Amino acid sequence: MADIRVISADSHMTEPGDLWVKRLDRKYRDNAPQVVKKETSGASVSGAPLVFVGPGFHPLTVAAVFAAGRGGEELREHMKHGYEAARPSGWDPVERLKDQDLDGVSAEVLYPSLGIALLSMTDTELQQACMRVYNDWLAEFCAHSPRRLVGAGLYSLRSLPDVSEIEHCASKGLKGILVLASNTIEIPYSDERFDPLWRCASEIGMPISLHKPLVSGMSLTPFMPSPADLQINCIHVVEQCLTRLVYGGVFERFPKLKIVSAENDVGWFPNWVNRLDHVYSKLGNPRPRLPMKPSEYVKRNVWATFQDDPLGPATWKFFGEENYMWASDFPHADSTFPNSVKTIGENLEGVPAHVRQKIVFDNANRLYGLGLN
Hints:
Layout: E1 7-12, H1 19-23, E2 34-37, E3 50-54, E4 57-61, H2 72-78, H3 93-103, E5 107-111, H4 124-142, E6 149-154, H5 164-171, E7 176-179, H6 195-204, E8 208-211, H7 227-247, H8 250-253, E9 259-262, H9 269-282, H10 294-301, E10 302-306, E11 324-326, H11 340-347, H12 353-367
Parallel strand pairs: 1-5, 5-6, 6-7, 7-8, 8-9, 9-10, 10-11
Antiparallel strand pairs: 2-3, 3-4
């Protein structure tokens, strides 16, 4: 495995706790999302010295975003700490390249950590201002090494039909867009009111990501009474979003649209793709009627990341050779850092070398137009 080249298609930033306080326009600063000390108040933040708070979203434990592969008792102990326990590569691009080299990674697609919470904000004007701050900060970070630091900016669905933020991200050199993945929005993704988003991304050639939703922003129910239940369910939220894009004819209307399922694993994909075709074949009068099989749209328009999912790569004969993309999830708790190459060897054992090369490097390199050799 020593000669393998690797791109992480889903890694994360560690945003400074005062990013929005310092950078937001003065009229928004009283409501700026920020990291604060908080010792109690709620199981999700109990015992955590620092939490990320802001209007419209649940407090987020800061230490969780830089837990870098920890689990069990080690993770519980880590959650008592603040930024002193974080690797500075979360906000320092020079250090980030060093950590890439340490982990054997050639490049990373960079998603937010704290910034994902902004997707849940309900004050549209404030949300848009906060996203602009994050997108500009991310672009500055990635400008240090554009081919190795590949930024995915934030876009608010509340902005529609205005897509100027996507155009702004592209002008700043960002390579992708992250939007809210939810099954509770009032209109489906196939509704024509979403078309300006799909059209803009298609014309620019910018992939749109549906990242695993934050469990901290999901409500416990009698049917799902624990965070563990929500962790299992959140993948199905993204699955349903993708289903609507297929059955709703979005990929037929926008054949150049590129959608990424980020951090939702991939072992379920072949069964889902097969079910799409099976269910559609049983419909007497599907609306809209699709000229291609549903699975053909998925193969053409959808990519998916995973970081430690040995079942997923094993399904490559059925689906995924051109669509799966390995990821490290650095610096989150699920991260494979600093043993990513070792984990890849274990997860892709038995996968032919040419297929492995696509999954861990070529597919992401092609999707984001990185031009890496």
